[in-house]
Amino acid sequence: MNWTINLMGCMALTALTGGIFLAAWLCLKWAAEKRGYIEFLYRALWPATLFFLVPAAFLCCLFRARTGEYAGTGAWPGCFSPSIKMMGERAAGVWLCGAALLLLLYGVDFLRYRYQIRNKIRCGGMKYAVFCRTLEELGLSEGKVGLYESYHVRTPMVTGLWRPKVLLPAGEYGEKELQVIFLHELSHYRQKDLWLKSILRMAVIWQWFNPAVWVLRMLVWRWSEYACDSCVCRKTGKAGEYFGVILSLTEPARGWTDGGRSLLLAHKHELTRRVEKMKKCFKKELPKMRWVYGLCTALLLCGTVSVYASSEGLLAGYDRWYEETDVALEEEGQPFEEMTEYEETGDNGLVEEMDESAALQPGARSGNMEWTVKADKRKTSAGFSAKSGQTIEITVILLPTDLSTNVGIIEPDGTRRYVTGKRAVSHDFKLDQTGTYKIFIENKNSKSIKATVSYAVK
Amino acid sequence: MFGKRILSECEEVIMKAVWDAGEDISIPDLITVLREQYGKDYQRTTVVTFLSRLAGKDYVETFRRGRLSYARPLKSEEEYKSYLAGRELNRWFRDDASDYVSSLLKERGISKEEKEKIRRLLDELDD
Fold first, then answer.
1. Which of the listed residues A278, A295, A314 is the one where a domain comes to its end?
2. Residue A306 and residue A362 in one domain
């Protein structure tokens, strides 16, 4: 089925454009990191994620195939050989299995998360007062984000796409600790990290076979923290104090962590990495806007060019492959045209040659032959029996597709009945004699033709 | 000690209020605290019902002093937190590094050596 090939093509193109954008981001990171563009680099991961999800290049291909220079050629999304169709179906099956497994894992993750946050207690008193002050400091209105504490969470977190809330582990906190926690978590909310992670989740399910999307996932997880840390350090002006508070919150007495048991290798040495990043890249002053505009333009150009280039490359490449490949085409389900039957007797000047390579059994009800019929020749099959009242159904696929050819049967009395067609010929010959019949193909052209013949007596 | 006595959401709120009080708390005061601090506008009968359930689970004991009824915690908040931390089921279902949350810290355990390394880095940070 063509939809499987289109699906694979769509995924391949999306993987390509996403990979190009990610490579561009990595180049940008190399240039921009040391200048302190931490938050900008994190925001630039948004379009990278979207390029892995939205099949922009494939949609561009479809649009150009219908409206641009490739319109009307029939080249796209066109015909494929049976072997490519089979490969497409198998690849689609493998992809579906992987995507289903990931969906299941994410579903389990969701249930675990819901179980974790099932019990929560609204915070009041000093905690809520510091929370409101922090909301105001960040320009967020009260009521947009809730504040709760819970005995079932081990680290402060922000969660909830539609009803966002900050969750604290139940316990006592100093004012400075609360300020650091709320600045960090509300920065996550302001950056819309949960939305980006949701989009990224869909991209991972869609492109699970692509290692670049897993690299992107790791980058998003890490850089969301770097961007938060950068934002908080800029607000407080005291990076050392900020990380000092986080470090103190990990003391075993607080009961936040498992004390030495690191279950997730991906997050091993996470805090060390974050401190080192701030040490290397943190700048107290915001970068100049002209640099930001320049970097945005560069990223936008990169994205647009990669989409256009990949669609152009695919259409041009397919068009060339289509022209140069001899592929036996069989339009699925397309009915053959009703053909006019002709009759002829006697010699018509063509040299007859018999096909002895596949001797037909007298009682054979059907058969298949691969013939090469030279110019000005008639190729004839061996004889086979058929009775009056029966029908001989013949289907012939011809190459080249533009040469007109006669296809028919020779009756027991030597009469030749035939139809004339190009490319694909199919006809039912109703029989009114009992005896030995033969199938023939006449090539009155100046070039040889190849014919795939199949017949059946019914 | 705790057996299979995990608290429901409402029971946890009430226990939190009792623990935060720091001392024996009367029912009327408990109702006020629940309403003003935790946003739970429970009727007296509701609070009494929950307290009797909590007493059945050996979390509190209730007694009369004068005209008022009081609640006193039998287990501390730290004991409850330690119990939750130790429950295997809770550990399985707890995942602070889930895709559905953005947490302050995903790393589960920081060794002493790493803490020392971080402290040295913090000293070098230009504040």
1. A314
2. no
- Chain A residues lying within 8 Å of B107, measured CB to CB: 257, 262, 264, 267-271
Best of A42, A103, A149, A154 to substitute, by most chain B Cβ atoms within 10 angstroms, is A154
Q: What is the mean pLDDT of each run of 10 residues along chain A (458 residues)?
A: 76 88 88 83 90 83 67 50 75 93 92 85 90 91 90 88 91 89 92 93 94 94 91 83 84 56 56 86 65 68 72 70 54 58 86 68 73 91 90 90 91 93 90 92 91 89
Cα distance between residue A157 and residue B97, in whole Å: 10
Query: Residue A36 is part of which domain span?
Result: 2-114+191-314
Same domain, A7 and A84: yes
**Shared domain check, A303 and A366:** no
Q: Give the list of residues 6+ apart from residue A316 with CB closer than 8 angstroms, or none.
A: none
What domain range includes position B15? 1-94
A237/B118 Cβ within 8 A: no
pTM for the whole structure: 0.70
Residue A90 and residue A29 in one domain? yes
Phi/psi of residue A270, nearest 5 degrees: -60, -50
Does residue B126 lie within any of the structural domains? no
- CA gap B25, B113 in Å, rounded: 45
For residue A221, what are the CA distances in angstroms to A54, A104, A198, A344? 21, 21, 12, 79
Looking up tokens 């695919």, which residue turns up?
Answer: A314
